Amino acid sequence: KYQSVTNYENEKKLPLIYDGNVVRFWVENMPANSFYRFKLSKDTVGVKFTDTKPQIKTDSLGWPQEVKWKQMNSPLFTESLANFMSLESKVGRNVQDAIGWDNADATLRQQKVEKAMEETWATSTEPTKITETPYSIIYEQKIHHPRLKWAVRKLEIWKKEARAQISFKYFRLSSSNPEVFYLAFPLPDPGAFPVVSNGGNEFQPYKQQLQHTNTDFLTIDGWVDYPTSKGTWIWSSREAPLISFGSQQLAVKSMSPPKKMNTILAMLYNNMWDVNYLDDCPGEMEFQFDLVWKDKITDSKQIPKIVQTYFLPPVVMLNPGTREDKHTFLRMNEIK
Questions:
Q1: 8 Å CB contact between 50 and 30
Q2: Lowest pLDDT segment from 52-66, 191-205, 298-312
Q3: What phi and psi values does residue 94 have, to the nearest 5 degrees?
Q4: CB 242 within 8 A of CB 183
């Protein structure tokens, strides 16, 4: 059984960390546009755990409620991260007529939404599984919801870097009834108004978007930025580019920012629209999110480049014993 890998460039051996059928090893400070070569080894390498850790507060089941590194004035997130919620029709496919989508009276429209839709939050009753690696702490917890066969949320917190990665995996039960799935991310309120991007164009939602354009949800390029003089909070999503702020905003049509603009709801599933795709997609689905705090961001154009490194992990190639084909190698390295 292999126990480590050897870096060809500096002869440094790195221990392998086994997690079921997955094997990991940690590489730090790898320069941009570079590559490393590693060779599997059966040599045992001592695992050194860093003493540097953030302050982590958890609930009674061990799921993190707050995490803060020493260089931060406010925590990376507040309350319980990655809470799941569904918004389900109580009137079947007639939900749009029941809501009165085109009704100009916002109060009456919201009263009809409350009658036609049911909001249900997931619950957690099982202890959190905690795994510590030399460089991170991983929290994994099962949650329960009537629309899901099963669901697992995983939170990996970096020890030295103000960063957390959230993975959410679930099995949706078959149903054609209109419903929307959300995952909630309550962030601290540092006094900053969020900035998003659509098609590479940055803007402040509600304040700088085109008048009378949709605000029930926003289509973004996959990131939200909260810039302050004391650092910036960057939330990013690998697969869910539709978000709402504060709470679910179904048929609200608000032209002013809702309360708690520091809470992001990522839309994971929505079969309410009458469009040309299946209204029932059961089975396993997985989503990944990153949350990071940066001390100094001098140019907002850095943010897409930062989050792109989270969306596109390093490419790993298993090379055979034969020589590389120079033409194939050239073309592969032209991929940007």
A1: no
A2: 298-312
A3: -85, 20
A4: no
Give residues with Cβ within 8 angstroms of 109, minimum separation 6.
99, 100, 101, 103, 251, 252, 253
Q: At which residue do the structure tokens 């949706």 appear? A: 172
Of 129, 130, 101, the closest CA to residue 116 belongs to 101
**CA atoms of 247 and 45, how far apart (whole Å):** 48
Q: Which amino acid is at 326?
A: K
Strands 83-89 and 163-172: unpaired
Q: Is the pTM value of this prediction over 0.85?
A: yes
| Cα 122 from chain centroid (whole Å) | 18
Distance CA 246, CA 259 (A): 6
Residue type, 161: E
User: CA triplet 29, 31, 34: central angle to 5 degrees?
Assistant: 135
Is 113 strand, coil or helix? helix
Question: Three-state SS for 102?
Answer: coil
Give the integer Cα–Cα distance in Å for 196 and 224: 5
Tokens, residue 2: 């292999």
Contact call for residues 170 and 147 (beta carbons, < 8 A): no
Main-chain dihedrals φ then ψ at residue 120, nearest 5 degrees: -130, 125
Tokens of 128: 């959190």
Does the pLDDT of residue 336 top 50, yes or no?
no
Burial grade of 100 (CB within 10 A; 0-12, 13-18, 19 or more): middle
- Other C-beta atoms closer than 10 Å to the C-beta of 112 total 20
Q: Which amino acid is at 148?
A: L
Our CA angle for 132, 134, 137, nearest 5°, is: 30
- Span 111-149, pLDDT tens digits: 898 899 999 999 999 999 999 888 899 999 999 999 999
Q: Which residues have CB under 8 Å from 17's CB, separation 6+?
A: 23, 24, 25, 26, 47, 133, 134
Going by the DSSP 8-state scheme, the letter that residue 93 receives in this structure is G
